[in-house]
Amino acid sequence: MRSENLQMLPQNRKTKKLTQIILSLGIGLLLVFGGGYIKQIGLGSQPVLAQYLRPEFVAEQVYLRLSYLPKENQYVSQETGNPDRDNTLISRFIRYHQDIKKRPTRFRIDWQLSLADYLGANEEIREERYPGRSTLNTNPMEGDVKIISGLNRRQRKQLVDVLVSIYDIDLEQPSNSPNSPESPSTPTRPTPQTNPSPPTRPNKPPLSRPGDADLLSP
């Protein structure tokens, strides 16, 4: 009897190991397909407008409002050998802010911190991580720092105000346009109706009574 139990031990171990392998494969497949499905749902729920808020797009809007800012887009692309006109001073500043420093784009204080970096009053800007270093023939960091640090206080405030106004978009707020079906309409109050007064009836002469004829006699 004991020998039979000893013979069954290897089989039990094999069965247990096979079960663990099957469970591991099942969990792995569940994580792969389940994670992909969750990721797909998450991407589908992102606002459509977010795909247009690329740094180049935002920089273009900034230049439309603050035309005195230099574009500094004369740097040559390593890939094409031609000047990369979309790679501007403001687009690199935005990429430094959101990609390198990972700072939010909707708050004024965070943009002020990035400006302080260019002024040398906050964190050091690292040349090897600056936007454009790996795509342009010349690292534009030195020139960008010189230009932004040369802006006066009013110009820096205008730059921050414009950036915040562009990114501060409430996509969940319905349009208040009068043509929008979601726009709230002011309920019209019903006009109070006055009850018309009943028509006046002409006074009928009173009926004659006995003895009234005596009043006519001389």
TrEMBL record:
<keyword id="KW-0812">Transmembrane</keyword>
<protein>
    <submittedName>
        <fullName>Uncharacterized protein</fullName>
    </submittedName>
</protein>
<keyword id="KW-0472">Membrane</keyword>
<keyword id="KW-1133">Transmembrane helix</keyword>
<feature type="transmembrane region" description="Helical">
    <location>
        <begin position="21"/>
        <end position="38"/>
    </location>
</feature>
<feature type="region of interest" description="Disordered">
    <location>
        <begin position="171"/>
        <end position="218"/>
    </location>
</feature>
<feature type="compositionally biased region" description="Pro residues">
    <location>
        <begin position="187"/>
        <end position="208"/>
    </location>
</feature>
<feature type="compositionally biased region" description="Low complexity">
    <location>
        <begin position="172"/>
        <end position="186"/>
    </location>
</feature>
